[in-house]
């Protein structure tokens, strides 16, 4: 079953059209990457899905066209967005950031259990549970951003540059944890990642965007085997 389908997605900022036809298909429990140069439209694609920029074309989630819904309505359907730059709430503690992630839920026991799950997944956060998010390192803030998204019990996670600014070993830890989430909770994912080597450790397939358009889509194995992908995204 297909969980998310984008067809001919378009989007503009004011008069400037930046998406001109993005197509993408995420199966239930699947993880799909979006590759592309700076400015290609990767972040805008995630914003269109989460309802934070207006879009044209079709955005079908779980069989329903969700284009035009408000961000809170999209979130309520089970789509969680971990934005570029993380978006954690600096003045709140780690624990309160996790509680904010669960703001649509009423099951207090379930929330407490999921906070424990997140702290097991990211032990660094356990040690900083009462610290303000602003006092965390970049890697810890990224872990918190992912954990906060998980607290909403999403069916689909939108991840934007989860490795940005992190040391290679920290980036690997974050991706190991995300892969674990995928395997244990079966959460589907759309993964935007500059570091394609890292992205390919997580995703089954990917689409390549050029100036707001999907120009190539394939399985991870197919893409990794292509010379132009290796040259442009894999450092060789
Ligand atoms: N808020 C905005 N207002 C106007 N133009 C924007 C805005 N955000 C992005 N753009 C423009 O839209 C285009 C696509 O930007 P987007 O952020 O989606 O690219 P990206 O693929 O995520 O790039 P990067 O790899 O640098 O994060 C770019 O030309 C960018 O300058
Ligand atoms: Mg971006």
UniProtKB/TrEMBL annotation:
Q: Which Pfam families match?
A: ABC_tran (PF00005)
Alphabetized GO MF terms: ATP binding; ATP hydrolysis activity; branched-chain amino acid transmembrane transporter activity
* Residue ranges crossing the lipid bilayer per the database entry: none
Source organism, top-level taxon = Bacteria
One GO-annotated biological process of the protein = L-amino acid transport
**Residues of the ABC transporter domain:** 4-236
Keyword annotations for this protein, in alphabetical order, are:
Amino-acid transport, ATP-binding, Nucleotide-binding, Transport
> Which InterPro entries does this entry report, sorted A to Z?
AAA+_ATPase, ABC_transporter-like_ATP-bd, ABC_transporter-like_CS, BCAA_Transport_ATP-bd_LivF, P-loop_NTPase
Into which family does the record put it? Answer: Belongs to the ABC transporter superfamily.
Q: Which PANTHER family match?
A: HIGH-AFFINITY BRANCHED-CHAIN AMINO ACID TRANSPORT ATP-BINDING PROTEIN LIVF
- Name it: ABC transporter ATP-binding protein
Organism, by scientific name, is: Modestobacter muralis
């Amino acid at each position: 079953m297909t969980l998310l389908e984008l067809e001919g997605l378009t989007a503009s900022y004011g008069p400037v059209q930046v998406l001109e036809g993005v197509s993408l298909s995420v199966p239930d429990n699947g993880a799909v990457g979006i590759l592309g140069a700076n400015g290609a439209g990767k972040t805008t694609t995630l914003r269109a899905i989460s309802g934070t920029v207006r879009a044209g074309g079709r955005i079908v989630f779980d069989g329903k066209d969700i284009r035009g819904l408000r961000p809170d309505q999209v979130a309520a359907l089970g789509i969680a967005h971990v934005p570029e730059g993380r978006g954690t709430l600096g003045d709140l503690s780690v624990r309160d950031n996790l509680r904010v992630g669960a703001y649509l839920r009423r099951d207090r026991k379930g929330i407490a259990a999921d906070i424990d799950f997140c702290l097991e997944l990211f032990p660094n956060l356990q040690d900083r549970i009462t610290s303000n998010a602003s006092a965390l390192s970049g890697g810890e803030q990224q872990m918190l951003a992912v954990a906060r998204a998980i607290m909403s019990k999403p069916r689909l996670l939108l991840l934007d540059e989860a490795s940005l600014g992190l040391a290679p070993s920290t980036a690997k830890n974050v991706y190991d944890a995300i892969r674990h989430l995928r395997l244990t909770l079966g959460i589907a994912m759309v993964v935007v990642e500059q570091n394609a080597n890292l992205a390919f450790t997580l995703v089954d397939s990917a689409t390549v965007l050029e100036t707001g358009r999907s120009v190539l889509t394939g399985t991870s194995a197919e893409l990794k085997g292509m010379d132009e992908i290796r040259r442009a995204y894999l450092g060789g």
